[in-house]
Amino acid sequence: EGVDLYAEVQIIDVNTCEPVQGLYLDFWHCNTTGVYSGIVASGNGDSSDTTNVDKTFLRGLTPTDEDGVASYTSIFPGHYTSRATHIHILGTYNGTLLENNTYSGGYASHVGQLFFDQDLISEVELTAPYSTNTQELTTNAEDQILSEEAAEDFDPFFEYVLLGDSVSDGVLAWISVGVDMTRAQTITAAGTLTADGGVMSESTNAMGGGGGMGPGSGMGGTAPGSGMGGFGGSVGGPEGSFNAASSETDVTQSTTTGVTQSTTSGSVAAEASDPACSVRRNL
Question: Where is composition skewed (Gly residues) in this entry (predicted)?
Fold first, then answer.
């Protein structure tokens, strides 16, 4: 339940200025009241409900098409204390789609977070069930992770249009993201969905503040020991590889609930080195 969100994320290789086809984009975010699936942690809803580790709501995985666009349907994310409203993304490339409809292998070329205009967030927050969320709302201007991303010559905000007279009719959002496809990130999961259910990493025990930027930056995406919901990570990490899905996990569900991180979201340095490569055009 929530405001329908139809999102398109275009991935552009900053080294060639060409769209990246066949990259699998993993995305996840919290629900209308600020709770992530797949994680049991203090601050993530009812932390005594251990069954949440088996849940997969608001997580997905989809490939980019010939235009480099990954399209998915979800609901507009809610908020939780200390973080502005955001969506996590992870791009995995050169993996294999197996016969049992799972995705395995490859390497993680991008980890980051995407944000929404404050006016849109404010309008959504007035509607139910978002309005029932008792957690303090952190604005874009107050979010440390967002301020770091925006300061690095990277525009992390979706463009959008309402699909009717109000947000209740749904939102269409789109963004282009520049990625250095020569980079590979080392990913550490905070939780993994197996054939026998979800399994939490022993090092994941708390709700953090942010995810998607510097080490230990937060919830909904954090490094081991700090986070819930997904990554604590960003780009520019050491060489490594990542299994986007194990053989027990359905391809339509995000298996990674946490990652390590190093620098900023988006391949900022590579993007800036070629100003002729426009990665922010509308879809």
Answer: 207-239
Q: What angle do CA 138, 139, 141 make, to 5 degrees?
A: 125
Put simply, whether the predicted model's pTM sits higher than 0.85 gets the answer: no
Provide block-wise average pLDDT over 10 residues at a time, the chain (283 residues).
Answer: 97 97 95 94 88 92 96 97 96 88 85 96 98 96 90 87 98 97 85 85 52 32 30 27 29 36 31 45 33
- Domains located in the chain, CATH noted: 4-273 (2.60.130.10)
- Biggest CA pair distance of the chain: 52
Q: Quick check: helix, strand or coil at residue 119? A: helix
> Residue 113 to residues 116, 151, 165, 231: CA-CA distances in angstroms?
11, 14, 28, 9
